[in-house]
Amino acid sequence: MTLLTALPIRALRKPALALATVTLLLAVTPAPADDSAAPKPTPVPMVAPRDATIPGGPEGELIQYGRRLLTDTKRLLPDKVGSSMNCTSCHLGEGKVAYGSPFVGISHRFPQYNPRAGRDVTLQERVNGCMQRSMNGTPLASDSHEMKAIIAYMEWLSKDVPSHGQVEGMGIGDVNKKLTPDPVNGQRVYVAQCASCHGANGEGMKDAAGETIFPPLWGEHAFNIGAGMARLFKAATFVKQNMPIGIRLDGRLGQGQVLSDQEALDVAAYFTQQPRPDFAGKDRDWPKGGKPKDARY
Amino acid sequence: MKTARWLAAALAALCSSAVHAAPADPSLVERGAYLARVGDCVACHTAPGQPTFAGGLALDVPYLGRIYSTNITPDREHGIGKYSFEDFDAAMRHGETPDGRRLYPAMPFPSYAKITPEDMRALYAYFMQGVQPVAQANREDEVPWYLSARWPLGIWGYLFADAEPYQSDPQHDAAWNRGAYLVEGLGHCGACHTPRGFALQEKALGSTDGADFLAGSHVGGWFAKSLRGEPSQGLGNWSIEEIVQLLKTGRTRSSAAFGAMTEVIAHSTQHLSDNDLYAMAQYLKSLPAADGSVAAAGTATLRDDGTLAALQAGQYPRAGAAVYVEFCASCHRFDGLGAPRIFPALAGNPSLLGDDTRSLIRVVLEGGRMATTQHDPMAFAMPSLKELNDQEIADVLSFVRNSWGNAARPVQPAEVAEQRRALSALATAQ
């Protein structure tokens, strides 16, 4: 019973499963405080440190390597990455862009309850979620040099953020989910606003050195159906906030704010439903229910 | 005697109104419309949000003050509706208005003087019959009284303007001559691209005037690059096809027009016929380098100098490399080649390599947008990076000017500071 009181409230819904999970979790990390009880902390403005301030020495080298792995993932981890994507294809500008799924503050927010996993997950597990879904690849060992480097970079990016980890511009913002998406108009939006970079057939674009500039949005080299980006609302929100890039005179990448909520939903309805790789572990997702309505399986 | 004078006046009035009333040949008006686009008259004679050709655009002239472009619609009170062809011709060629006023050479009449009489007729027909009259009064110039006398402009014109229509050069073919006519004349490319002398006169008005012609000049906080044959900062490494693509679409596979040139492309050159664009490109390619430099065989200055490998390996020993990786590389790439028609290449891009760095610094500080044309569905933009400090901008620009085979003098932080000051003053003035 003393053990149970320490459990997150959500875990109590299915006591048998929760017990197994929590025993496992407790072995690795302390259970996080129940955030439904405490008042939400006020997010701090997002200030990302410059790369030039990465310290020297072995610690700095690890951070630099982590930054490189996240921005140059496919080239540096060819055996682990299946899609033609880099982490920074979605985590824009080295993970330093507000509403561009930034990493700033993220290390403080994990372990975190993940409805898809039905339990609290560590930051390493979350990274591996991306590796298996968006990257359509295989997970990194938690104690690997690569994983340690990635975590080191995220911790360095989060070093000036209070321990609550709440930062203005974290995540990708929001979109009006009450609208009805129209994939036919979505195709028109795609042709007008996306195809110049992502290609008429969603194939993306590589640079002259063979590295991905614009990731494929469907087809065999794209993220698989288990990726957040394959889901309507996630994709629409990301697109509204961040696409196209290089279209404005402000913003870190001159990104976003071009499409209306409706257009973003339309175009997301179009491209998320195109053929893409399957996700092998899909049967294990949402083990406790609560599957969102835009889930692909 | 009185009657005779009255009769003459009435006759003159009749004749002149007859000129205006008689419908001109529609094809002449159409040709005039095309020529007005070549001349980009709209650029200066239309203020933002105001009726086309009704004037009112503020132009800041060094030493002088602020002048406003005039109404060139056929409105009889405020525009040029009362102009006879001879009046129009005199204004276009000599900068003289019917009331004896001299135009400031912000109006490129020294270039327009090269227009053939036939084309001048077509332009006149267009402005009289193809343009909607707009009853908008001209704005008074803001020039101090002690500088407001216009008579010295007559002497200026005598000294610096040559009022002869373009003469074909028999040593060159018809396309070259057509290109010379458009570039030197109506296109008035030299207004921005030719350096100006002590009296603000263009130092050269044509290919036969010497190496100053189109050798690059600064205007309105920009540096309008050299259009001559220097392989680094000029057009020495560009093909005719690339020049045509830039004028027509505002971009090529490896570059994009920026700054004031995007307006020239949007208003003017995107509408030109392929024949005229090829003629202009052929002519420009014939201009030798101002400094006598010659493009190496095979033209490309690009070479593998190890920059790509170093950036891929995470090695940033050179100042500016880390800034490049953090702020520039996701679009311009480790190989400096960008993305075709989306993000311009920095490797081998002549706009990066000039001695005058003000455009380069300005684009980093303000960002920039490609020309919007009928030929591409999207016009891309580079965001402002003004949050970088002077040292960071100087470092990163020095890095890109000396990577991937590029070679140019380093940029100093003081140049960035100076451009920040100049742009802030420019913004205040507007």
Q: What report would you give on this structure?
A:
The complex is a heterodimer of chains A (297) and B (430). With 297 residues, chain A is mainly α. Chain A has 3 domains: 1-39, no CATH class; 43-171, Cytochrome Bc1 Complex, Chain D, domain 2 (Orthogonal Bundle); 183-284, Cytochrome Bc1 Complex, Chain D, domain 2 (Orthogonal Bundle). Chain A has 11 helices and 4 strands. Chain A has a two-stranded antiparallel ribbon. Chain A has a two-stranded antiparallel sheet with strand order 3-4. Chain A is globular. The two termini of chain A are 37 Å apart. Mean pLDDT of chain A is 89; it is low at 1-33. In chain B, the strands form 3 sheets. In chain B, strands 1-2 form a two-stranded antiparallel sheet. A two-stranded antiparallel sheet of chain B has the order 3-4. Chain B has a two-stranded antiparallel ribbon with strand order 5-6. The longest helix of chain B is centred in the N-terminal third of the chain and has 20 residues, at 2-21. The model of chain B is unreliable at 6-19 (pLDDT under 50). Chain B folds into 2 domains: 23-135, Orthogonal Bundle (Cytochrome Bc1 Complex, Chain D, domain 2); 174-429, Cytochrome c-like domain (Cytochrome Bc1 Complex, Chain D, domain 2). By secondary structure, chain B is mainly alpha-helical. Classes of the chains: A mainly alpha (297), B mainly alpha (430).
